[in-house]
Amino acid sequence: MSLQTAGIHHITAFARNPQENVDFYAGVLGLRLVKKTINFDAPEVYHLYFGDQGGNPGTIITFFPWPNSRRGRIGGGQVGITTYVVPVGALPFWEARLASFGVSVMQAERFEEKYLQFYDNEGLRIELVEREGGANNGWSFGGITPEHAIKGFGGAVLYSTEAEQTASVLQDVLGLTKVSEDVGYWRFQAPGEIGNLIDLSSTNVARGVEGAGTVHHIAWRAKDFEEHAQWQQEVLQAGYIPTDLIDRQYFHALYFRERGGILFEIATDPPGFANDEEADALGQKLMLPSWFEGKREEIEKNLLPVEVRELEAYSK
Asked: Which stretch is the leader sequence (predicted)?
């Protein structure tokens, strides 16, 4: 192992209704819709990206909302819980806000940290934790100001069918450091300030089923294109089978499935989400790669319309 990822780049999940997806992540959680595009491999499906004000690595959750998709089941070979970090002192605000939108919240503790855990509208498991690290999110929306806004990922909880194998790839391939153990979990740390703490269930978990309400893959950061090519060789030399380097417009990607069943991606920090839009206009227009521009009218006709809108809380 000669390379070390700074932490999570993004997490990609499945959903069904695109407007309900926007309502939850922008309307309830106050994240910014930083990119509205399509699944390049299935142009009849949106690919929606939510993050902080600038769409920075370590803050981005993305979704493939497909109305006809089946309901998934969270289990081994998946991200079991997506962890978001908020400023210190913000959890009471979030507990009240989530309750005001009818979202049931459970309190939990792990590694001497307190968490608010809940499900999104599709059944994806999410938790919030307070931490000092990471810059505050400058995005304000729907009554959420930077003093309370989600900064980005705190990390993730991984469920593996072969926990020892997943622990090995986290340490020996990605360069994370095992820093602690708690009942049922091992904690690994990357050097970044955000998306840097990964908790792995130390017990093997029965395989999950992909579908709405589950995570498709977790992506790790590569600092530039040169390092990305080095990562491909690193993965190959570790005995895994990486894909080709793929241009995803806003980052370059490679994928491999680790032996515990989780699909890992390694994604470059550049060029970023202002690659094809002005920074103050992110997410406002459907952005298509050049090879689909000639089919824009047909593609737009097949997609359900979505809008970012402020929601009115209905539970006090």
From this structure: none
Q: DSSP state, 27?
A: I
Fold (topology level) of 8-302:
2,3-Dihydroxybiphenyl 1,2-Dioxygenase; domain 1 (3.10.180)
Amino acid occupying residue 111 = F
Q: In what order do the strands lie in the sheet with 106-110?
A: 106-110, 113-119, 125-130, 78-86, 152-159, 197-201, 185-189, 177-182
Cβ atoms of 239 and 293 within 8 Å: the answer is no
Q: How far apart are CA 147 and CA 87, in angstroms?
A: 7
Q: What are the C-alpha distances in Å from 91 to residues 56, 148, 239, 246, 314?
A: 23, 8, 42, 39, 20
pTM of this structure? 0.97
Task: Take residue 23 and report the two structure tokens written for it.
Answer: 């309502």
Which helix (H) or strand (E) segment holds residue 236: the answer is helix 225-237
| DSSP designation for 291 | G
Rounded CA separation 98/143 (Å):
13
Dihedral angle, C-alpha 305, 310, 315, 316, nearest 10 °? 180
Dihedral sign of CA atoms 125, 128, 133, 139 in order: positive
Domain spans in the chain, listed from the N-terminal domain onward: 8-302
DSSP structure string for 174-186? S--EEEEEETTEE
> Nearest Cα to 153, choosing from 272, 57, 23, 19?
57
